[in-house]
Design brief:
Layout: H1 2-16, H2 19-25, H3 30-44, E1 49-51, E2 56-58, H4 60-85, E3 92-98, H5 100-107, H6 111-117, E4 121-127, H7 134-137, E5 141-144, E6 154-162, E7 164-168, H8 170-176, E8 190-193, E9 201-206, E10 209-214, E11 217-221, H9 224-232, E12 237-241, H10 242-251, E13 255-257, E14 266-273, H11 280-296, H12 298-303
Parallel strand pairs: 3-4, 3-5, 8-11, 8-12
Antiparallel strand pairs: 1-2, 5-14, 6-14, 7-12, 7-13, 9-10
Helix pairs in contact: 1-2, 1-3, 1-4, 2-3
Length: about 300
């Protein structure tokens, strides 16, 4: 057990770049953490960590040993989680990342029911519109809108497909008119999401017809909720996936334009690290989210 504790202390020191922070995170005194590190270095006969008054860093051998220790501790943690999963008792903190729009509309509303079923899981949500590294950021589940992950260590589980549409408020259309063809957009005020692929060129498809239209944003933002709010105020025509604005379209707050043309669709996926033993918290939340999407028939609504 002392060996595992020594490795745990060493890994935490390497991750936090601080002996005192590592001690605090493990509920140890700084002196106790220092003794564990010293005992580990003594047993291995190697210097793992170099310290000065200004900074702490790993030696070359320490860097290599860190990766081995990290993998071993992860495997041990996952083995415990697998045992707990067999009795449907997930525990711990589940770290989820998704865009602000997805968090607000499709994660937060589900948390009360998920918490009722699995009261021993604490959910931590990281709102991010850019895709970060799951390993470096310690994320368990990421919601992403791309078909595949460039990292083979990441598993992708499909949630739903969604159309992207153009829409504007009735006030805007009364004031500026309704575009009748994709080319007409060049005379309109467009509200563009800057993180979209080719945000300044729209690719339209209608049957066998294909058309690429360069566009300039009258207003641009890196968050879909900001774009939506601008459209609701009559600022222009937005380009957004239906999973964000479906309720606004149904209520008439936003009116689709050029709806007989199709833009490239998005596939919403759950992404998580591929592991021999999936943790109970990841498995239960993934299953819970997939079941909810199927029950609500979101893909049918968002692709109609």
């Amino acid at each position: 057990m002392d060996k595992w504790r020594e490795m745990e202390v060493f890994v935490r020191i390497a991750e936090l770049h601080s002996l005192s922070k590592a001690a605090d995170s493990l509920d140890l005194s700084k002196a106790a953490a220092s003794r564990h590190l010293a005992a580990l270095e003594e047993r291995l006969g190697a210097r793992l960590v170099e310290r000065s008054t200004r900074r702490l860093f790993l030696t070359d051998v320490g860097q290599s040993f860190f990766h081995r220790c990290k993998a071993l501790l992860t495997e041990a943690t996952e083995a415990e989680s697998e045992v707990k999963a067999t009795i449907l008792d997930p525990v711990g903190t589940l770290r989820i990342t998704a865009s602000l729009s997805f968090c607000v509309k499709h994660i937060t509303p589900l948390l009360p029911e998920y918490n009722r079923r699995y009261p021993n899981v604490t959910v931590h949500v990281e709102v991010a519109n850019r895709y970060g590294d799951l390993i470096d950021s310690g994320i368990d589940i990421a919601i992403r809108t791309r078909e595949y992950e460039p990292d083979s260590s990441i598993t992708v589980r499909r949630l739903a497909q969604t159309r992207r549409i153009l829409a504007a408020s009735p006030h805007y259309l009364d004031r500026f008119g309704t575009p009748r063809s994709p080319e007409d957009l060049q005379a309109h005020r467009l509200l563009l999401y800057t993180l979209a692929n080719q945000s300044h060129e729209l690719h339209f498809l209608r049957g066998e017809q294909k058309m690429a239209v360069p566009v300039t944003g009258f207003f641009e933002a890196n968050d879909g909720q900001v774009i939506r709010a601008a459209a609701m105020e009559g600022l222009g025509i937005l380009v957004q996936p239906l999973y964000i604005i479906h309720a606004d379209v149904v209520s008439g707050r936003l009116v689709p334009v050029l709806n007989d043309w199709d833009l490239p669709r998005l596939t919403i996926n759950i992404a998580y690290l591929s592991r021999k033993h999936m943790s109970a918290k990841v498995r239960t939340f993934s299953d819970f989210l997939v079941a909810h999407f199927q029950q609500m028939e979101f893909e049918r609504r968002w692709t109609a």
